[in-house]
Amino acid sequence: MKQSIKNFKKYRFLLSELVIKDIKLKYRRSYLGILWTLLEPFLTMIVLYLVFSKLKDNNDRTFPVYILTGRLLYTFFANSSKAAMKSIRTHGQMIKKVYVPKYIYPLSSILSQFITFLISLIVLVVVAVYLKIEPTIYMFEAIIPLFILLVMVLGTGLILATLAVFFRDMEYLWGVILMLVMYCSAIFYYPSLVTEGGHGWILTYNPLYAVILNFRNAVLHGIPLDMNALIYSSLFSVVTLIAGIWMFYKNQDKFILNI
Amino acid sequence: MGKVVIKVDHVGVRFLMGSEKVDNLKEFVIKKIKRNIKYKEFWALKDVSFTVEQGDRVGILGLNGAGKSTLLKVIAGVLKATEGSFSTKGRVVPLLELGAGFDLQYTGAENIFLYGAMLGYSREFIKDKYNEIVEFSELGDFINVPVKNYSSGMKSRLGFSIATVVDPEILILDEVFAVGDAKFRKKSEKKIKSMFKKGVTVLFVSHNIEQVKNICNKAILLEKGTLIAKGEVDEVCELYEEKIR
Fold this sequence. Notes:
The complex is a heterodimer of chains A (259) and B (245).
Chain A: H1 2-10, H2 12-28, H3 35-54, H4 63-90, H5 92-97, H6 104-130, H7 143-166, H8 170-183, H9 192-195, H10 201-204, H11 207-221, H12 227-251, H13 255-258
Chain B: E1 4-18, H1 25-33, E2 39-53, E3 57-61, H2 68-76, E4 83-88, E5 92-95, H3 108-118, H4 123-137, H5 152-163, E6 170-174, H6 182-197, E7 201-205, H7 209-215, E8 218-223, E9 226-232, H8 233-244
Parallel strand pairs in B: 3-7, 3-8, 5-6, 6-7
Antiparallel strand pairs in B: 1-2, 1-4, 8-9
Helix pairs in contact in B: 3-4, 3-5, 4-5
C-alpha cells in the first residue's frame, strides 16, 4: 500500500501530462475549440426538446433543463467508460516499452473526460438561468451524485479496460449496452412513462438513473436527495470500484501478452 | 568485487499460446462451450540466473528467438517473470526503440514533457534540462512541429536526447547505435562512452560481435531460453562464434 502511494506520487506528473494531452488534442484542430464542449450538449438538447416536447405536447417550461441534466450525466458516463476501455490498447506501444503503472492510462482518460464534463456544466447553468429556475440551498448537494458517478465510472472503466484487452469485440458489445442504459435512464421522458406501465423496476435498479434522479432533485427540483437512490447508487459504485481494482490488478501482468 | 546492481535469480518466463488466437468474446464463448480452447506452453526464458556488478558492461548474445529481448523486457520492468526473482539497484533507463512513447499529434516540445514524465522525471527536472535536450537533438525549429511530420531519424534523435539527459545507473541498449545519420551516430556513441567512464552498468544486445567486444567486458550467451555461458567477453564470444559455424 505504502509502495503504491509512493509510486503514484512519482507518476503524478505523468497523470497530469496525459490528462492535459487528451484535452489539448481534442480541441486543437477545430475552429471553435473548447466551445464545442458547450455547443454540443446545447444543440442536442434543442433537438431532444423539439422532438419530445412538441410531438408529445408537453408544456413544462423546465423540460429543457430536465433533458440537459440527464443527457450531460449520461454522456459523461458513456464517453468516459468508452475512453477508459480503449485506453490500454491505444497506449499499447508505450506499455510494451516503458514501465509505468498501468492504471494511469484508464485513470487519465476518465479524468480528462470529467474535466470536459465539468466545463460542459456551464451550459446547464446558462439554460437554467434563462428559464428562471430558482436556485435553492439544495443545489450544493449536486456534488454528491457527481462524486458517486465518478466512482462508478472509475470502477466500470477498470473492468472494461481489462476485458477489452482480452476480448476485442467488447467495444461493440458495450456500445449496445450503453444504448440500452440510455433508454432506461429517463433522460428525455418522465419516469411516469415507465412506472405507469408497471415497469418501475427498470429505473429503481438502474444505478445511473439513481444518480440522475438525485442530481435533478438538487439542481432542478430543489428538494432533498432521494435516500434510497443515494444508498443504492453509492453501494453500487463502491462495489464496482472494488471489483474493477481487483480485476485490473489480477490481470495487468498479462496485458502485454495481448496487446 | 564490485557492488551487485542486477541480480537475476532463476528467472523463467512462460507464454501461453492458444493454438488459435482467441481474442474476442464471441469465439471465446463458443469455444468454451465446445471445450476446445487449447494452450501450448512456451518458455521464452527458463531458469536464468546471473549477477551484474556495478560498472560491468554485459553483452547479451544469442541467435534470434534465444530470449534476449524477453530478458531485457523483464529487467526493464515491462514484462513480469513467471517464476524466479530479480532485483535492480538504481535508475534503469531502457534505450529500446526510441521514441515509441511519442504522441504523433503533439509537437516535439510537448513530447519532451510527455516522454520525460513517462520515464519518471519530474516537471521541474525537464524544465531545467529542456534546452539541453533540444540542443542535443539538433532539431532546431522543428521542435515546435508535430512529431507526425518528423522523419524516423528525427524521432529517434529526440528520443535518445530525452532518455540520456540523466545519468542512469543501469543502461539497457538494444542495438541503438543505429540512431540517425552518421554524424549523430558518432555523437550518441560519444555520449554513451562518456557514461561508461562515469561507471554506468550496461546491458547490451547486439548481433555484431565486433561491437560487443568493443563495448563490453562481460557477456552471457542464451540459447532457446536457457543461459549456456557467462563470463569474460572474449571467451563467450568465441563460444558464440563456434555456435554460428
